[in-house]
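Bench notes, afternoon.
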Amino acid sequence: MKVIIAEKPSVARDIAAIVGANNRKDGYLEGNEHCVTWAFGHLIGLAMPEQYGITGFQRENLPILPVEFKLIPRQVKDGKEYKNDPGVMKQLKVIKELFVKCDRIIVATDAGREGELIFRLIYNYLECNKAFDRLWISSLTDKAIREGLQNLRPGSEYDNLYLSAKARSQADWVVGMNASQALSISAASGVWSLGRVQTPTLAMICSRYLENKDFKPQTYFQLKLHTSKDATRFAAISTERYDARQDADTILERIHSAESVSVLNVETKQANQEPPLLYDLTSLQKEANRRHSFSADKTLSVAQSLYEAKLISYPRTGSRYISDDVFAEMPALIGQLSGYAPFGSYAKSLSGQTLNKRSVNDKKVTDHHALIITENTPGDISADQRIIYDMIAARMLEAFSGKCTKENTTVSLDASGVGFTVKGSVILVPGWRAVLNTPDEEKGEDDASVLPTLYNGETLPINGADLLEKQTKPRPLHTESSLLSSMETCGKELTDEAEREAIKESGIGTPATRASIIETLFSREYIVREKKSLIPTNKGLVVYLAVQDKKIADVSMTGEWESALNKISVGEMDADTFHRGIEVYAAQITAELLETKIEGVNKRESCTCPKCKSGQVMLYQKVAKCSDEDCGLVVFRNKSGKDLTDGQIKDLLTKGKTGVIKGFKSKADKPFDAAVAFDGDYKVTFVFDNSKKRKR
């Protein structure tokens, strides 16, 4: 009997249908000499310090450096205690029994670093020693699963991938556990979260915010000259900037008194724009944020759902290339889009054409190739799914299309000794740009769209001139799109696509983890969104200012660790050497943070927690929360459309009840007045004049 273990029940069902395991059992599917079972994410994780007999948040116990890491089942909170998740324990029992009975184990968790870790932790926790094979596929189509099952690989071939995943998990535990506890001890109030990747990411957001906030714009002036030829009007901008308005006005008067402008030089060049590379996860997330305001986490979630619906290839990829064997499938996949309304006519135009091979490179395909569609056609999918699917389909058509050919013209002019310039661009052959008819993003704000035919030495009339008052601008606040770029390149400002590709191996985080890192910063209340911009909260700035010059916030160092993890995955570095380096690093940052003074931490309002009597309830912008995470007391400021004031929350915490508050809104949008109080379980309730309590 063969046992196949998938990462999710839905994937298990797909595989079971292929192998003929159609009999549903408790925790697995059975049939045709196969049993197909599943995990549901990480069933096993690393134990907390208490499991090693170490009391947390004690200066003398830091740094905590386990000699051997203990594995425990996923925990759930039960009052103040944590206990094994009953659902996890039940499924582990099923998996163990199947592993004992089987002749062969086939690993079908997601074919990536995290998927490998999910299986190996279960395997090690259950103390299984049977050999196993690996199903490694890039999509969940029936065809891909069948081919994968016919080409299983020995599990040992992925040992380095597991060692890399294990090293990353342990490094995050060691750095996060010690740094967070050290900073919390220094603060002497509340629990403060730091992380190996989380903190450098916060540093990038905060440093950009402070740079933007402290920027002093400088005013300068330019002249705009209006002219024409053959009924085509266009404007040129002065080549010189003027710091003083008086100087600019003097020149403007000179231009007004002139009758004509001379064409000094006309330079025309043809330029070929190569099509963009296929999407990897990060480039998809960046584009979805820029074009559709999707968060990185939302894009990943939607892409994952499309993958599980068998419509796209594996989304958690860091490669923007495909291999030659996948390229052989492109004509058929493009042909399939001929019947897909948004791109049907364009896909038909590529039929029989030589496809561009810029995105084809066997050596640059990592664990998985770039994102592409599958042979399955989308049916009734959600609006968000349609957006992401169309983005991937469009990019696939763009990537295999011909170059865009443009004619770029730069004209230099002279009016009474004052230099002006204007640029124009005309697309001669749209090529890949015809897929979405995308505008030319390289155009400057003052560039003309169309210029008449101009010749050196000819004169043109001056139809007018304006004075332009401009200001220097700071670098914009980070959006999720720009932050993902910075994470990918360790903060280096790179605009060239090839340069970004070359350095991405040393970025911080991975395509699969960057979204969750950003979401962690939101959940910690370190950052908020304002439209598309990422803004640090006061809490986030307090943390940043405390650690900005410490190793924990060093983006480049974190990038070096990331590069080392990549080397482990391909067998170019020893995992034990990496771990020893992490332990030295953890000891250094712990020592630094224990001596850190946190400015502003004690300014936040707080009250003794009425529930646990030991923690402090800290008042934040949207919530009041006990500093003891085991306590779990939370009071949300907004109740029925009204925000509670600091004074009202303090009354609730100290007296158990506020006075009557006016202006609440019911679900039917009707106003009402009530006091707010705690019930016996410290849940917030309304108290009306008749003293009857109702939850809302």
